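User: Sequence for NADH-ubiquinone oxidoreductase chain 2 below. Tokens please.
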Amino acid sequence: MTFPLSYLFFFLTLILGTLLSISSSSWFGAWIGLELNLLSFIPLISIKMNPYFSEAALKYFLIQALASTLIIMSSCLILLAPMMSMSLILMALLLKLGAAPFHFWFPQIMEGLSWPQTILLMTIQKLAPMFLISYLLTSPTLSQIVILSASLSAITGALGGFNITKLRKIMAFSSINHMSWMLIAMSISDTMWLMYFFFYTLISSSIAILFHFIKAFYLSDLLSPNYPKSFYVLTLPLSLLSLGGLPPFTGFIPKWIMIQILILNQMIFPLLILLLSALVTLYFYLRILTPFILLMGPSLSFNMKHPSNTSLSFFLPFISFLNFLGLLLPFPFISM
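Assistant: Structure tokens for NADH-ubiquinone oxidoreductase chain 2:
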């Protein structure tokens, strides 16, 4: 997919809105940053005159406008009822984030986007709301709301992906599940959720790039023999296992650190929910792995076509090194 040059301007204003919201010293400035981010993202997901892109853009605009309205209304109540006002702002930010129980819009919008657009929605669009939520966690009540939302996100992300054959929806529920780890980390330390977000961004973006190059949107698309090279048949399954947090891949590193910190903080019940949900999400990735196991058989691999793809050939070694970092250098992370 080729992007017009004008969309570079919208991408820069998208980043500018995120930075403005993060660095603002008042809720009014943060709201302006969120609105600038919203108005910049709408053109980025309306690239083609396509009903799916238009529907996704309209749904995203309505949901984000509702959350912005809640932020403005809550700011007006901050002098009368400070705790209620902060709770409403927190819920509005959770709505913008797509965390449970306000997750209903996230899989539907993901389904109507292309893979490069889903990378923006899963990564950059989550930065500003997450920073603002971390600024809000100044009282035990707000922290308990975030932990409750994290537990619901873990359960929703785990159970929501059953019997789904659309890869974008599977990635959406996976994102909701990973959001639970970041919300729990947010209630403990800013460094923890930033570390987890960094690893999640790299791994999920690499998988979306692979899906984009082979134009795969359904599980059945992965059965096509027209793969660029046999090395890809090994790269994507192991990258999915890394996203699922299976040791000793890179995705296990932030989860291993989070497990240690949750045990030290005696948060055993949230940790139990997160671990059980992580095991269920591995089922989604194993479903995607099944076609690759079949394709590695001699009868099918003999007839596989290998068209040249220079771009994918350039990305494959980098993606492999990124997802196998924990396998190559495990000892510094085990000792942490």
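Residues 299-308 have pLDDT under 50 and may be disordered.
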